[in-house]
Specification:
Blueprint (H helix, E strand, L loop, with lengths): L5 H31 L2 H8 L1 H9 L2 H23 L2 H22 L7 H18 L1
Helix pairs in contact: 1-4, 1-5, 2-3, 5-6
């Protein structure tokens, strides 16, 4: 598969769609579960029905699940066009990098230097896969 073949363009577009949808899903699900609170504590004091109603009643939860479903179907398309030895690591790597940025920007998490270094190394790995 050459770098600019039609299958290659489709594969990389689908990999990018997987990464974007996964990051959006992860951020939305994280936000939803932070709003629900400590599930173990909630379960212990108020029961499983409360956990389910708090989780399923959160709009961020459903938006996150929808985004994750889009990521899954994008992965299916990517795998139909490209090799799993490229698609799997590339999608996971780009998702890892995207999650670091999204956690910092949207969830206001502290992303330490070690995680940024890891993200740079992962980006270098993706570049090697692409070449």
């Amino acid at each position: 598969m050459t770098l600019f073949s039609t299958a290659s363009v489709y594969t990389w577009a689908a990999v990018l769609a997987v990464a974007v949808a996964s990051v959006v899903g992860d951020v939305l699900l994280s936000r939803a579960m932070k709003q629900v609170g400590d599930v173990n504590d909630l379960w212990r004091h108020r029961g499983v029905r409360t956990v389910m109603s708090q989780t399923l009643g959160n709009p961020n939860f459903f938006a996150g699940v929808t985004a994750m479903a889009l990521a899954f179907f994008s992965l299916l398309f990517a795998l139909s066009w490209g090799d799993v030895s490229l698609v799997g690591p590339a999608a996971a790597s780009l998702t890892f990098i995207g999650n670091a940025f999204a956690a910092k920007i949207f969830l206001h998490e502290k992303v330490d230097r070690r995680r940024w270094i890891a993200a740079v190394l992962v980006a270098a790995g993706v570049a090697l896969l692409a070449g």
